[in-house]
Amino acid sequence: GAVVSQHPSWVICKSGTSVKIECRSLDFQATTMFWYRQFPKQSLMLMATSNEGSKATYEQGVEKDKFLINHASLTLSTLTVTSAHPEDSSFYICSARDPQRGLGGELFFGEGSRLTVL
Amino acid sequence: AQSVTQLGSHVSVSEGALVLLRCNYSSSVPPYLFWYVQYPNQGLQLLLKYTSAATLVKGINGFEAEFKKSETSFHLTKPSAHMSDAAEYFCAVSVNSGNTPLVFGKGTRLSVIA
Predict the structure, then answer these.
(1) pLDDT tens string B7-27
(2) Does residue A13 contact residue A118 with C-beta atoms inside 8 Å?
(3) Which of A44, A51, A75, B3 is deepest in the core (most CB within 10 A)?
(4) A114 alpha carbon, distance to own chain's centre
């Protein structure tokens, strides 16, 4: 199946620093990627839709200046958490569709990135 | 807008017993429906999907789900639970395969007792 890879899997940073998380589609091209955030023992909350070559579309309530999303190529989207604070600690997961798989519309998910802000 | 409701945040079954995880959806147009499984500190893995080809859908690891339009349901079942099935399960809905995200239910944590 289609493979989506995230890096890093775990990251610990100090409050006030910025952290970048990469999401790559390894065997397909993705014009659109989705970033989700998951709090402990809760469901996935859509943060933003990342569009290759254009600005991301953020969901209501998500601070676009704090969560910077860049979709520089058809296989790479990055999420940068700027000036991170402890409340930004969470599990971040990216996902994408493989357009070659036709009908179905399933998303393929990265392994997730656990961010802990001290 | 679409939505998904998963009944029961936690389901516990004995090893070898039937697994039934409930999902009801709301959609104004014919939906695509999915079940995903998540193990601790991992991403989501697709178990199965409904795309209108057949109402009874078979997935990986012995799971299956039946789409019932009249009940707006897409419940997940497995005849015999294994210890390895213990995980978080998410039902999700979409209305097309384009650039729209999936909308997830709150999830159901499945525990399997030896």
Answers:
(1) 999 999 999 999 999 999 998
(2) yes
(3) A44
(4) 11
